[in-house]
Design a protein that fits this description.
heterodimer; A: 115 residues; mainly beta; 6-stranded mixed β-sheet; 4-stranded antiparallel β-sheet; 52% strand; B: mainly beta; 7-stranded mixed β-sheet; 0% helix; globular
Chain lengths: 115, 113
């Protein structure tokens, strides 16, 4: 079945450092790809998405490009802030019969930014 | 628009009991999905409902069930609770068509003792 693999965490960076969180996927067809973020005690927030190959999703300084040739969707940010500390999840949409859909998630990467 | 709401936010139950969790989707969204989040297994899909019909189901035992009402609100029920059912249960809504993004509620933290 479809699956998502994220880089192992936790990741600790200093403020203003460059961030990359790797994500690769295995899927039949052409799923949409997502990054979600989860702050302590909260649900998941959609950070960005890409629906087809070569699409670049971006939001709040974060970017990710849908790379079909490498089956990757790496998350990047040029200059992180303390407020970016959270758990980040890469996900793909898995479509079933009758248009039923579910999200398949990676294991999550905990990011800590030190001032 | 108001976001996805879930009630209750926290719940403590004992083994063998049953529990019902509630979810109200974003207005206009017809699809509601449920996920279980645990430190060991991560985020796992439970089921998805669209217009009161279950369209998709994850690999969970029959003790886990759900339903959706005509106003798109959804409930999930877990019967004969086990210690391993302790988790954060997340509800997500979406229009049911389109790019596949889902919008999550804050979750219900269930603790089974």
């Amino acid at each position: 079945g479809n699956s998502v693999t994220q880089m192992e965490g936790p990741v600790t960076l200093s403020e203003e450092a460059f961030l990359t969180i790797n994500c690769t996927y295995t899927a039949t067809g052409y799923p949409s790809l997502f990054w979600y973020v989860q702050y302590p005690g909260e649900g998941l927030q959609l950070l960005l998405k890409a629906t087809k190959a070569d699409d670049k999703g971006s939001n709040k300084g974060f970017e990710a490009t849908y790379r079909k040739e490498t089956t990757s969707f790496h998350l990047e940010k040029g200059s992180v802030q303390v407020s970016d500390s959270a758990v980040y999840f890469c996900a793909l949409s898995d479509w079933g019969i009758q248009g039923a859909q579910k999200l398949v998630f990676g294991q999550g990467t905990r990011l800590t930014i030190n001032p | 628009k108001a976001g996805v709401t879930q009630t209750p936010r926290y719940l403590i139950k004992t083994r063998g009991q049953q529990v019902t969790l509630s979810c109200s989707p974003i207005s206009g969204h017809r699809s509601v999905s449920w996920y279980q989040q645990t430190p060991g297994q991560g985020l796992q899909f439970l089921f998805e409902y669209f217009s009161e019909t279950q369209r998709n189901k994850g690999n969970f035992p029959g003790r886990f069930s759900g339903r959706q009402f005509s106003n798109s609100r959804s409930e999930m029920n877990v019967s004969t609770l086990e210690l391993g059912d302790s988790a954060l249960y997340l509800c997500a809504s979406s229009p049911g068509t389109g790019g596949g993004e889902q919008y999550f509620g804050p979750g219900t933290r269930l603790t089974v003792t």
